[in-house]
Every structure is written in structure tokens, then in C-alpha cells.
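Hey, can you fold this one?
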Amino acid sequence: MQACASLSQSFRLLPRRLLNVLKAENDRDLYLIFEYMETDLHAVIRANILEEVHKQYIMYQMFKALKYMHSGELLHRDIKVSA
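Sure. Predicted structure:
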């Protein structure tokens, strides 16, 4: 459960507030519950409103998040926009 507390503290620094961290019944997975957002990345991509600089910054944020997760020896199944 120490990992849950650590994740919770780290994600509080992000623009979207982390509301809860739930531990799965299998004791291997965590679910991060964030504030509701009006849209998602998939909708923004489909709207074709992003300029190149926005796309680069989104990728930068994704890579930084992955590096942080991997530094804590956390794994993920996949990263994708909603479909």
C-alpha cells in the first residue's frame, strides 16, 4: 500500500487532480481515478485542431510520464487514446 500513497502524492502535482487510487483484487494492478474531463485525446486528435507544437508537447509529456513510471519499476499494458 506504500506504492499507492507514493503515487497519490506524485500525481497531486499534475494539473488534473488525482481523486483516488484503487488496488485491484489481484494485488498486482492499481487504478488511478482522476477528475472528470470534458474531452479526451482521441476527440482532440479527430477535431484536427492541434498544431505541431502541441503534438510535440503531448509526446514530450507522455515520454516523461513513461520514464517516471519505469524508474519506479511500474509496468503498463498499453497506452492509447480512447476509441
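The CA atoms of residues 5 and 21 lie 8 Å apart. Let me know if you want another pass with a different chain boundary.
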